[in-house]
Each structure stands twice: as C-alpha cells, then as structure tokens.
Amino acid sequence: MPVVVVYMWKGVSDNAKKRIIGGITRVFVEIGIPAEAVEVVIEEVPKENWGIGGEQASEKLKHAEVP
Amino acid sequence: MPVVVVYMWKGVSDNAKKRIIGGITRVFVEIGIPAEAVEVVIEEVPKENWGIGGEQASEKLKHAEVP
Amino acid sequence: MPVVVVYMWKGVSDNAKKRIIGGITRVFVEIGIPAEAVEVVIEEVPKENWGIGGEQASEKLKHAEVP
Amino acid sequence: MPVVVVYMWKGVSDNAKKRIIGGITRVFVEIGIPAEAVEVVIEEVPKENWGIGGEQASEKLKHAEVP
Amino acid sequence: MPVVVVYMWKGVSDNAKKRIIGGITRVFVEIGIPAEAVEVVIEEVPKENWGIGGEQASEKLKHAEVP
Amino acid sequence: MPVVVVYMWKGVSDNAKKRIIGGITRVFVEIGIPAEAVEVVIEEVPKENWGIGGEQASEKLKHAEVP
C-alpha cells in the first residue's frame, strides 16, 4: 500500500520511467509511508489507443512528444 | 473527467478504435460533458491473458473474432 | 469482453448511469459485439479525490456539476 | 495524459490528498508534461478489502495508520 | 508483485472477502510467488453502477445475491 | 461479475496463465458464483515499468524470476 497505476503514451524513455517511479515513491515517503510499501505500475498505451476529445491522440496530438 | 478504460482482446482494427473512442465520447457529450474532458484508454489484452469461465479465451473462444 | 471501467466524479444521477451503460454498450454492439458480452463498471470518485492540474477538483472546479 | 490511479487504504486526510495530487503532478511537470494534462484519481479502499500476504490488512496491519 | 484488483458488486460479506483474499493469494503461492508479495484489492461497486447487456445489474439481475 | 485484473511482470508462461485463470475462477465458484460469470484479465508489465521501493524491478529485483 499504496499501489499506483500510471497510464501514459507508449515510448517513455528509461530515464523518465526512473524519475516517475522515484518521484511518485518520494511523494508517499514524505507523508509517512515506507518506500518499500509503494508499488508503481506504468502502463504504456499506444497513441492510437488513447482518445481525447473523441479522437485518437495519434491524430489529434500527432506532434506531441512522449517524455 | 471522465476517464474510461476499455479492456478488450488484442487485435482491434484502427477503424474500430476510432469508433470506440468517438462513440464513448459522444455518450458523455450527450449528458452534458465537454468532449475535451473525456479520455478513453483502450487496453488490448492477448486472448491468452483473458480468462472466461476458468479458461483462456484463446482456447475457449478460439474462433471469436476481434472487431 | 469488453470490460469498461468509467472513472467519474461522485454524484452521478440514476438517469445518467442508465445512459452511460446503455450508450457504451451500443457502441460495442455497433462494431459487432453481442450486448450480453459488455460489462460496464462506473467508479464514482469524490471530487476531493480527483486531481487535475495539481489541485483537487473540489477546489479547482468547485462549481462544475456532475451529470 | 497521464492518468494516475492511486489505490490506498480508506481514511486519507484532506491534507494528504492535496500532497499526493500536488506531488504526483509535479513529478510529471518535471519531465516536461503540462500540469493541466495530469489527472490523478485516489481510490480509497477499506482495509477489510485489502489483502496482503493472504490476510485482510484490517487484521494483519491493524495498527498501521493511514496518512 | 502481483497486484490483483477485483471488481464485484457491493455487499460482499466479511467471510467472502477473507476467502477471496486467501484463495487468490494461494493461487500465486502455488506457482512459486511468496504470499507476502501478493496484494489483493476488492473494489465493491453498487449494482446501480454495474452494467451488463446495456442495463444496470440492479434492474437486470435484481434477485442475484452477493456472496 | 466479478472482473479480476491481475498486474504481473511480463513473461508469464502459458502454464502459469492457465493456473492463474483457473485458480482465481475456482475461488469465486467456491463462494457461489457461476464460473461463466468470472472474467480474469492478466496485464503483463515489463519489469522496467514496475517500481518497488522507488526503483525499477528490472534493477532492484534483477534476478527474480517470472513464474
């Protein structure tokens, strides 16, 4: 406890994954939860499978970059 | 708001993805939510990883097609 | 198949729930999936528990209404 | 994008919710994502409904406190 | 690892929760995972919020009982 | 009802998938739910995308095996 599921576009760099996992864990450590108790799961979702405003992100946000 | 996560078998066509994203967004627009606020995430799951009635869909529903 | 999980703010009317469940199911029926195979789960989340732009929706979007 | 779902034990204080939402959003801002694009959903789960090591957290971790 | 999220209708008895948590954990222990690594989260969803075949379970399956 | 989502590290053998799906379904059958009503979804997550104690499982638990 806690378990954190992160839905993001596919293509996240290894460095960004490290920062997401480390950063989210620290948020919980700062409110008193032991780091070992924090599990973070990053679900990478292809932009074709992500809809926003009724359109695929692969079309609507074609030029948006993944961190 | 809202966020909609759709779990389906893997292999959904691009046309079906468009219709799922567009159609689900419209459902919320019709009850008064702005389209821009609707996020849809399609999680494609291999049939081997989907159980129904205690068996893998890849065996139990071998001939069922993905839209 | 499919399973659809909808995250929304708490306080959705019964009428809106019916329209969400009926409308999402129809989207899948229209791409060839039998209605009986569609499961929709509405997770109502208190606005205090929903963050957008780093703030609770209960503060940032205090006057936004739930359908 | 991203959408972050946090599963925690029920009873989180309003202050902790603010810090979780603010802190997680900052993690993504620091890797280049606009704050407005980050949605965080906190799912509070009663300790009776949370299992760890095969037992309910309400029994196994009776004295553990929620932040 | 693993994290198991169970979506069920609201009203699950404490005894059923114990059996679900214990039983699911054992499934993973039997394939070689330590019990301590297994987290199970039971999300109880009101029947009004659960759609099947396009209708609320509270109407369509009015007489179905929760274990 | 129920729907069970299992998050695990990627690389689960077909035999383990069968045992997870069959075993979890049996847990619900034993509390009175028909097997046909149980859906199990296994989400395989690369160890690089799984954080525990603030680190990627691919580093922290490099030698841990997937069942």
Automatic annotation (TrEMBL), chains A, B, C, D, E, F:
Keyword flag Metal-binding: no
Keyword line: Isomerase
Annotated catalytic residues: P2
Domain 4-oxalocrotonate tautomerase-like residues, every copy: 2-56
SUPFAM superfamilies attached to this UniProt entry: Tautomerase/MIF
Record keyword Isomerase present: yes
GO molecular function, one term: isomerase activity
Similarity-based family: Belongs to the 4-oxalocrotonate tautomerase family.
The protein's name: 4-oxalocrotonate tautomerase
Organism of this sequence: Candidatus Methanodesulfokora washburnensis
Lineage per the UniProt record: Archaea, Thermoproteota, Candidatus Korarchaeia, Candidatus Korarchaeia incertae sedis, Candidatus Methanodesulfokora
